[in-house]
Amino acid sequence: MAKLKTNIAQLGSTRLLYSRIADSICEYITENKIGIGEKLPSERELAVMWGVSRSSVREAIRELENQGLLSVEAGRGSFVIGEVSDKSMMFKIQKRNFFEQFEIKTVLEEYMLKKITPVISEEVLSQLEHIAKQMITMCDNGIFPQELDNLFHKILLESYGNKEMINLVENMIHVFGEYNDVYFHLCEGVVNETNQTILDTIPYHLDMVRMMRARNVKEVIKIYRKIIELDIQLYSMVNPADQKETL
Fold this sequence. Notes:
Oligomer: single chain
CATH architecture of the largest domain: Up-down Bundle
Number of strands: 2
Helix content: 55-70%
Protein name: Putative L-lactate dehydrogenase operon regulatory protein
Pfam family, one: GntR
Keywords: DNA-binding, Transcription, Transcription regulation
Domain HTH gntR-type: 15-83
Distance between the termini: 45 Å
InterPro entries: GntR_C (IPR011711), TF_FadR/GntR_C (IPR008920), Tscrpt_reg_HTH_GntR (IPR000524), WH-like_DNA-bd_sf (IPR036388), WH_DNA-bd_sf (IPR036390)
Strand order of the largest sheet: 1-2
């Protein structure tokens, strides 16, 4: 049986296990040039290959069956029935998990902002204000300040003080980084619109700092939701029908 370079344990623990296994099955099909109509190794063989349970493999296969990539025949096994585009298939699998985690992250961050705003120190506010102004300067030059944006949110998160919640949100942010690698590869045709949407989020960071200094929780949340609306717009560019109405 052909081996796959990817080790499930090395793929990160923040995404659902079956989703990571589904990614690896796609990679396995691509690397081993398994064509339409050909059979995959059994669930047991795949489970042994990646050191996971058969139930997790079964869930991953069900996910790929829902995506129209595999067909499962009772007593015979799993067969490839759709073309595998490595990046686009990973995108489809990750996108559902992405929006689910994005919704969780949004709820958590909004809760944290409500708690932080009345008590955040002037020292932290000054740091955030300085970073926000630097971000705006870079945006004025057409450059998205990714590192500064990450630093802004890191300082804001750390001011909350709940380490477990901070770790949870930071893990989700890591997931979004993986998603972005796939997303922006597929968004090459709308890169100008994408860039503008990203840049449009930046001025709101300084507005948020000013409202936090005024201890105006209501306005802070309103500004945060404007950023989220732009984020949703950004991530819905590939397929607007996938936009989450609940966010």
